[in-house]
């Protein structure tokens, strides 16, 4: 029986690459999007052309009702998930912390932290052997910013990803005897559209000289690490955070 994966934020970048790779590995995939319906449908269509199966569900993951609907839709249309990739996230325009207001902080933490917690909660309720599930794997997409702090640009984003790191370790230990593995990847500077959201589309070119490998990463390079963590090849790995950051 085909395994089922939910990939949040699957309309572009790392999420889209992960959805395509998961479908190629035999998963039936539910990918989420907030606003980019056409992009999400294009990913679903590409998966179908390659012989896979995928659906797209609109959801704002900072809203609990949307998360509940996402998992209910997946249950009904595909079945209980075996894998969750908490990839959806956002950042806002570059600025120093002293310029940030509470509304911005709430937007960033709702998207990056609250959404990840809520999706993990619903996944555990379905995967855990304690609840009659068959086990599964969760991979959280963090950021090397959690270690570096992103001074002068995205201290709030960095802090939100540090929260994701802590959740990864705590949840992994919480459900280790219930058939669920929980790990994270920390991407470095990756060629995705998120940099445009911060006001600097070409940020990768500006900062690549400080990366030991002297280049930005590609979404597919992160997706391959995610798929490995989901796979049985990582069967004794839980509570781990894997940096995929070109040496940063």
UniProtKB/TrEMBL annotation:
GO molecular function terms listed in the Swiss-Prot or TrEMBL record: oxidoreductase activity
Keywords (A to Z) from UniProt: Oxidoreductase
CDD domains: SDR_c (cd05233)
Assigned protein family: Belongs to the short-chain dehydrogenases/reductases (SDR) family.
Classification via SUPFAM superfamilies: NAD(P)-binding Rossmann-fold domains (SSF51735)
Protein name as it appears in the record: NAD(P)-dependent dehydrogenase (Short-subunit alcohol dehydrogenase family)
Domain Ketoreductase: from-to ranges: 3-190
Organism encoding this protein: Vulcaniibacterium tengchongense
InterPro entries: KR_dom, NAD(P)-bd_dom_sf, Sc_DH/Rdtase_CS, SDR_fam
Pfam families registered for this protein in UniProt: adh_short_C2
